[in-house]
Amino acid sequence: MKETNRSTLSLFALAVSSFAIGTTEFISVGLLPLIAKDLQIPVTTAALTVTLYALGVTFGAPVLTAVTSRVPRKLLLFWIMVVFIVGNSIAAAATSISVLLVGRIVSALSHGIFMSIGSTIAADLVPANRRASAISMMFTGLTVATVTGVPLGTYLGQQVGWRFAFVAIAVVGLIALFANSILIPSRLQKGVRTTVRDQLKLVTNGRLVLMFLITALGYGGTFVVFTYLSPMLESITGFSGGAIAVILLVYGIAIAIGNVIGGKVANKNPLSALFRMFIVHALVLFVLFFTAPFPIAGLITIMLMGLMAFMNVPGLQVYVVMLAERYVPSAKDVASAVNIAAFNAGIAIGAYLGGIITDSIGLIHTTWIGGFMVMGAVILTGWCQMLERKGSKLAYNNKQEAQLS
């Protein structure tokens, strides 16, 4: 019982950190109109705070995770949060889009490495049959961030200015730093030094590359729409700024519920669960094209989008770790980091694609294009299931032959 309580407290500390990081990752979505107005730039230029942040995670996560592989995990967590606080402080002091983007990129570097080692720490704290749930609990910080952090940050931005939202995030980062120092055990499993050869094996393994593509498409499809959700709610559905903050709160609650469900259903068979999730997710995005102009129908569909948005995260992350343990066990942390990079590559692609769509054919069309992006994940997940069944059958036949001989 004591061991279980200790693990729960450690997971709570990781969740506090992911709450801070999740808030800063998604806060720009609620602040886009305010940033654009204050800095006198187009909304699509302000959206670079989403795109470049995601790119910072995409490129920073695998590189920094590999470079810091021998640093004690608890010490590394400490410095991650220091960098996080510095990045958000720069953003809070920004008087131009250039300085704001520098702050966002610095914050992104801490994000990538935290999410990669945080996932493997969470998985190592519990028995194998609870890994997806443990990762889900860590990622609960991200979902709670969308429930409270992002709407509250949006409200603060609307009331006292968008810079104050970043000040508040830096304070939360300081709280997370102390939570890690107090609640995370010192005797964590050490990171394994990953050779260049193992890293190459990781990014050239067909099964892992396939999963990274699934992650980018399945998770990124939402961000074609979500990046511009505030402008869509304002200009298409017709809600006021105050109502949008409330809607983002309810949207976050839907995300939190979806994340918990995703962790539970992915424990036994991640691939099968992911396949079903992506099908429903794509259908919801297609339906949103028709319902977005209507307040009630649009809200219902947007809440369903929120329910599905993070549901796939635990399954994607735990299955990548499983594949890494099977094919490149010495690069497990880096595999987790690459998948975090894939999540953020999806965000960057989705946000950039959403900007192009918004400028060319209009906001409403982000919905069905995001749906097609998720459909790509459906097809690739089906392919991955086929390969898994084929591999299991081959392993079974080899076992039978060995027993007969």
Question: Describe it for me?
Answer:
The chain is mostly helical and 405 residues long. It has helices spanning 2-39, 43-46, 48-67, 73-92, 97-124, 131-160, 162-183, 196-204, 206-226, 229-235, 241-265, 270-291, 295-309, 313-327, 332-360, 366-404. The protein is globular and about 55 Å long.
- Fraction of residues in helix: over 70%
Using only C-alpha atoms, the radius of gyration works out to 21 Å
Characterize the largest beta sheet: strand count, sense, and whether it forms a barrel: none
Question: What proportion of the residues form beta strands (DSSP E)?
Answer: under 5%
Low-confidence stretches: none
Write down the secondary-structure element order: HHHHHHHHHHHHHHHH
- Cα shape: globular
Overall average pLDDT: 84
End-to-end CA span: 46 Å
The strand count comes to 0
Number of discrete helical segments: 16
SS-based structural class? mainly alpha
